[in-house]
Amino acid sequence: MDNIDWLRPPEQELNIEVDAKTIIKACKDKGLNKVPQHSLLNSRQKAPFNPNQPNQRLLEEHLRPCTPSILLSDKNEAFNPWVRDFCLGQPIVLITGLTKILNFNLSLFQTKTIVKADPDGIIEVREQMLQTNDENWNQAYNQKVWDYYSHRDYSSISEYALYQNKEYLKSKKETNTQNKQDIEDKEDSNFDQLNLKEDQKIECKKKKICFGTNVDLSNMRKWKSQLKELKKLPPLFQVESDDNMLNYVGYNILGMNTIQFYMAVPGCRTPGHQENNNFCSVNINIGPDDCKWFAVPYEYWGALYSLCECHNIDYLNGSWWPNLDELYENNIPVYKFHQKPGDLVWVNVGCVYWMQAIGFCNNIAWNVGPFTAKQYQAAIESYEWNKLRGVQSIVPMVHLSWNLACKIKMSDMQLYKMIKNCLFLTLRQYCLTLKFVKNKGAEIEAYNCDTSYCVKCMIELFGILFSLPKNNQNVPYCLDCALKISPLLEGFVCVEEKNIYALINIYDNFILNELPTDNGAFTCSKLNWQNLEDGLDIDANARTIIEACENKELNSVPEYSLFNVCQAPLDPPKQQLQKEQLHPFIPAISLTSENEAWELEPWVKAYCWNHPIALIHDLTSIVGFNMKLFWTENIRKTFRKFKIERRTQMQQSSIENWDKTYSNKVWKCYNRRSYMTLKEHEKDQTIMPSEIINEYEDEQIHMTSENMLHIKRNKIHLDTNVDILNLKKKCKLQLKELRKLPSFLQVDSENNMLSYIDHKILGVNTLQLYLMVPGCRITGQQQNNNFCTVSINVGSGNCEWFVVPYEYWGVIYSLCEHNDVDFVNDSWWPPSLNELYEHNVPVYKFFQEKGDIVWLNVGCVYWIQANSICNNIMWNVGPFMARQYQLALERYEWNKLHSFQSIVPMINLSWNLARKTQISDPQLYRLIKTCMLLTLKQCYLLLKFVKNKGVEVESYDGYEVIAHYCDKCLIYFLPQRRPNPDMVCEKCEKKLGKVITPDPWKTGARNTVESGGRQVGENKALSAGKARFNPYTTKFEICRICRQKVHQVGSHYCQSCAYKKAICAMCGKKLMNTKNYKQSAT
Q1: Contacts of 711 by beta carbon, 8 Å cutoff, 6+ apart
Q2: Is 848 helix (H, G, I), strand (E, B) or coil?
Q3: Angle (CA) 416 420 426, round 5°
Q4: Worst-scoring range by mean pLDDT, 134-138, 596-600, 616-620?
């Protein structure tokens, strides 16, 4: 779907940017020797083919993936944008609770109501064979096949309703005659096997059932109540919505942009199929019983097509029911799930599915076309594929494209180009066809008519069609089929159904509706990659960069920024939020099994990355995370002498913040710092003994406005920043426990950018523990350099979280400044959420229960209060994505402007990432490469500037890297080196001023043990200048002169070059004379 190379018109001199007159002029000048042809795909690409399925062999658990599902609990959740994003990102989605929270009246679609409204309405009846959902037999019941028997007939709604009622009463009677054990067995099976036992399967094998389908509910007079009820749904799911592309077709297409109603008895099947032109679909189960669904992602439809061909089945027009074992053998994953009454199923672009009624149920279904490039491209590809196989495309994509261009303003660049490409190709084809027909001397009549299809090849006719009178009717043909009937077009009437000037007007007026860039949103700053100083770009090598710097005149201290124009915007989005948007729904994930946790890890990761915050339930319990290891009592036993930071605070409600006298509400939060050991903490703790805490861990002491009178003027203590990750020997169990989490949540993981910093940063790439009592606060803050955060509540109580998305941090910053509070260094707490709402700031508010994991995304502002006794563990993670890296750089530059220290040394980190990782994300690669270019250039210019000042520069190659910050402005320096530690004699343990090392000269065969030698020469003491070349700490392998491999450990130069140059093989200093080389080499 990502490849849109077909957006290239056949003439190189033409493109979608030219106007309509230029296209028409080019067509007039074109010579025509044959019938003009066109395809909506790339002219250089072959006609659409069956796509190859992904090559990667799936594991057994991936062949049976968990079905993406959403459980909604209130109306605000249903209309939250994340629901739309989630649906558009999954092959199929089961949505539970939607009809309930919207008070959707399912009874309007029950059989009784439908019969009463239109008893004589036409219903298509499919005669089928009753069988279990995991098998499919031929009509003789002697062989399993893919071909499914489904004979078509028609009846009235009332007649089928009588049949459905008769079957229901019959089933109920049979159920009442069964004994209690049979009833229990039936409840356990839940009709999954149609409630049939082995002895009953033989009886039912010859039973035929009828499936009532395709009842049209488009008539507004008859179905006014039903159509009105459907408007309660969110826009993505509505059949009549401005967000539905199919509303612009211009006429009703039954079952696509209209509602269809289905009536089923147990065993009725909808055979395998893709939706017309790969459009999305919506299906709601009215009940009273369930349906069982099977679905295959769009990427594997080619494999299903090939299997249908192997079984001699028409993939598009035939009725087929796949064998699941055969699908698994061919590496095809299958989603399986039950749709209960009231559940809505979203079928995404091109997904293949089939379903069977487990009991008696009615369903309503329709198609939708979301305005996405993926949807439009899949529809176009299906359109062209149908043309090659002589199958009619139910959706007239050309007419739809011109209608969209006429009525819609496109802001999606990719979708705009796709539609514009279609307009370009069809306008060109229209002009060429018109010219060809005129050359034939045919007369052309002009009149408007509805969308037509060629009766022979079934392709859509646009602009020009050829009508042949037959039985007092005009039968439409395309040009190719008309010429096959009559090469001179005798007897045909050429009809120009579209006015060329109207098309020109539509084409020229269809332009991209560019949204204003100054929308105040905190999007990542755009780097002008190709316009860096001195004509350099990230494709230049290091030598080119240095050469450019050598020619640069330096009249002042060289300066640089990691952005060409450093901007950290503070303006929030200007769109005024509605009341429900100021109290947004909390994105939450609930996992049920360990297999599900690992199977859905990529989806969970993507879900977390795409939301400001995510609350993950039950993950700790299903992976067996031992939270007791992080309880206060166990930590004290291990780290009794460990020093911790204590914050003395005022006890108050989470929605308020008072000054010290409790007289005024303020932003600044009282938060006095002190230090103590965990041993002292044990003596000082008087709130509740740890035994009672652990015994009554489910009891919670809540801090609410009602009990504020009883807690005023009390002081409480938050014990924070307990760093338990640096003491690896003592906290092995805790470290082992953290490795149970998915890799993207782990503190020490290859997927964590912060793992590549050269040193440990407390609470950033190490674990921090917070010991909290009721009322304790983690005051308002953003994480260091906007990195993501993971927090686990290890019990026993809960915490209340308040989170503001990154886009609105500028408002918080301004409010802090307005209230004389330092946003970065002070402790602050919004005294009233209403103040934030008045400034159009949305606030996520939720409780983190014991075992819950909170994912805090890039740059979010948050503050937390404990509602009861609990411990929390927190750390930062840096996912390898461009947004994380760029926002970290933005905060790095913002800190420089405000003289704040960036806790994360971004330059050091960038060079380490370049050295130790392989980046596959092009955007992230360019960001890191740009940082390296700018810092390399700055390093060289600074070196040049210092040398011009006559300052002596020392070199420290080979020393251990450490990070340094300026004492005054706190700006991070380029990597500096730490001198080697003092050497200590192994025998006397005294410090040595000189390093003892073997003589590098005395080596070779004559110095072997067999010949009486010691294999090494006499031990000599290196001078202080040579000490840094200690062969036991650094290994040099390449001669600095001849670049050949050096076999002597500790040498920079091979023996041959050292002898010729009369230098020391180790340090390279000039020797007095060659004769003394052997004695003075060390």
Answers
A1: 651, 652, 703, 775
A2: strand
A3: 150
A4: 596-600
Q: How far apart are CA 233 and CA 256, in angstroms?
A: 17
Task: Please give the DSSP secondary-structure letter assigned to residue 552.
Answer: -
3-state secondary structure 649-704: EECCCCCCCECCCCCCECCECCEEEEEEEHHHHHHHCCCCCHHHHHHCCCCCCCCC
CA dist., res. 7 & res. 419, Å (int)? 10
Strand 260-264's sheet: what is its strand order?
A: 69-71, 92-96, 344-347, 280-288, 361-368, 260-264, 208-216, 122-129, 150-156
Q: Give the Å distances, CA to CA, from 885 to 744, 864, 880, 904.
A: 16, 26, 8, 12
Question: What mean pLDDT value characterizes the chain?
Answer: 78
Which position has the higher pLDDT, 988 or 38? 38
Break the chain into its structural domains and give their ranges.
Answer: 65-171+201-384, 396-509, 529-565+900-973, 979-994+1028-1081
Rounded to whole angstroms, the Cα distance separating 857 from 789 reads 7
pTM value is: 0.52
Least Cα distance to 468 among 429, 442, 499, 430 occurs for: 442
CATH T-level assignment (fold) for domain 65-171+201-384:
Jelly Rolls (2.60.120)
Q: Is 842 left (phi over 0), alpha (psi -120 to 50) or beta?
A: beta
Quick: pLDDT tens for 381-420.
999 899 888 899 999 999 999 999 999 888 888 899 899 9
What tens digit of pLDDT does each residue of 423-475 get?
888 888 888 888 888 877 777 887 666 678 999 888 998 888 888 888 878 88
The CATH number assigned to the domain with range 396-509 reads: 2.10.110.20
Three-class SS state of 566: coil
What are the two backbone dihedrals, phi and then psi, of residue 812, each rounded to the nearest 5 degrees?
-60, -45
Under the banding of pLDDT at 50, 70 and 90, the label for residue 535 is low
Q: List Cα–Cα distances, 754 to 534, 631, 744, 905, 971, in angstroms.
A: 32, 26, 12, 10, 19
Q: Which helix (H) or strand (E) holds 899?
A: none
Among 296, 7, 199, 234, CA closest to 98? 234
d(CA 470, CA 489): 15
* Apex 481 CA angle, 476 and 482, nearest 5: 65
Question: Using an 8 Å Cβ cutoff, are 1013 and 960 in contact?
Answer: no
SS3 (DSSP) at 364: strand
* Confidence band, pLDDT 50/70/90 cuts, at residue 357: very high
Picking from 510, 487, 431, 506, the residue whose alpha carbon sits closest to that of residue 463 is: 431
% pLDDT > 90, the chain? 33
- Alpha-carbon distance values, 69 to 85, 97, 273, 366 (Å): 13, 11, 22, 20
Q: What is the mean pLDDT of residues 212-239?
A: 94
pLDDT at 47 over 60: no
Work out the end-to-end distance of the chain between its first and last CA atoms, rounded to an integer number of angstroms.
Answer: 67
The number of beta carbons lying within 10 Å of the beta carbon of residue 114 is 25
Encoded tokens for 1007: 């110095």
